[in-house]
Amino acid sequence: MRRNVCVGVMAVASLLGSGLGSGLAQTAGVTGAAGAKPMFDAVVIKPNHSGTNNTGVDWDKTTFKAENVTLKILMAHAYAIREGLIVGLTGWQLSDRFDINAKVVEASPDALKRLTDEQNMAMLAGMLEDRFALKVHRETKTAAVYELVVAKDGPKMTVNPKEGELDAETGIRRAPPSSMSSSGNELKATDVSMASLAVYLSKQLGRTVIDKTGLTAFYDLKLKWTPEQAASAEDAGPTLVTALQEQLGLKVQAGKGPVETLVVDHVEEPSEN
Q1: How far is CA 41 from the centre of its chain?
Q2: Least-confidence region, from 88-97, 132-141, 228-237, 241-250
Q3: Which residues, including other chains, have CB under 8 Å from residue 90's CB and lie 6 or more apart?
Q4: Residues 76-81: contacts with CB within 8 Å, 24+ apart?
Q5: pLDDT band of 16, cuts 50, 70, 90
Q6: How many C-beta atoms surround the C-beta of residue 40 within 10 A?
Q7: What is the dihedral of CA 15, 17, 20, 22, to 10 degrees?
C-alpha cells in the first residue's frame, strides 16, 4: 500500500489523550469568534471506485488532498491515532473509499504561517464532523505496549542545532518545528521529539509505544531497516528493532500501559458537495 504524507510531523503523542485541544486561536479559515475551531473554506468529497488499495495523502498549510482513502485512514490523521485503535466502524464505513480536496482559501500568508499542527488536525476533524456527521469519544484501557528506552551505550542521535532558539517575534524560547519523511523502510526526521518518534514506531510495530527515554531534546536522525518478512535473507539488513538500537541507541521493551481507543458513536455517508 502506498501512503505518502507531506506534512510537518506533529508532537502528536501529547494529543493522543487530549482530543483536539482547547482554546484554539482565531486564524486562517476561521470565521467565528476567537477560540473557535479553524476550518477549511472549501471541501470536495467524491467516491473512489478504482478497486485498488493504493492510497495517497498530501497535507500542507493550505490544502489537504487524499486519494482512495477510507474513513478510518482519515480519522487516523485527524485524531493522531493508529487505525487499529479506532473501533465502532462497520459496513461501508470500513470499505468505501474517497477522494478529498479541502482548502483554506481566504487567509493571509501571515495567518497561515501561524497555523499550529493542532489546528491543522482540528480542521480535518471538523471536516469529518461536518461532512460525515462523525461523533466520537475516547476510552482508555490497560493493554500490552512497548516502552521506548535508551539502550545501554546511550543515544546515538544528533541534537538539532536550532533547538531552543528564541522566537524573533515573541522572545520566547520554543522548540523548533518538526518534520518527518518516511519511505518504505527508511525514516528521516528533523527536530523530532522522542514522543513523536514513539508515535511513528507505534504505527510501524502495530502496538502503542510509550516514550520512557527521559530525553527532552529535539533530534535529527536517520533510521533504515529490513522488513521482518525479508529479514531471513542472507544479505538482509537489521530489523526495525535491531536498527533502532544499532543506529539510534534506543530500544523497545514489552510492558503494560494505558492505551487510548477512539470509539465511533455516529457517522453518516457524506454528500459529494
Answers
A1: 22
A2: 228-237
A3: none
A4: 77/5, 77/121, 77/124, 78/121, 78/124, 78/125, 78/127, 78/128, 79/15, 79/20, 79/121, 79/125, 79/136, 79/262, 80/10, 80/12, 80/15, 80/16, 80/121, 80/199, 81/16, 81/260, 81/262
A5: very low
A6: 22
A7: -100
Query: In 10 A of CB 271, how many CB atoms?
Result: 8
0.70 cut: is pTM over it? no
- Mean of all residue pLDDT scores within the chain: 80
Check: CB of residue 117 under 8 Å from CB of residue 175: no
Alpha carbon 199 to its chain centroid, in Å, reads 8
**pLDDT for 46-91, tens place per residue?**
999 999 989 999 887 678 999 999 999 999 999 988 898 999 999 9
Look at strands 42-47 and 98-103 and give their pairing: antiparallel
pLDDT confidence tier of residue 104, bands split at 50, 70 and 90: confident
All 3 cell numbers of residue 74? 482519515
Encode pLDDT of 152-164 as tens digits.
999 999 998 877 6
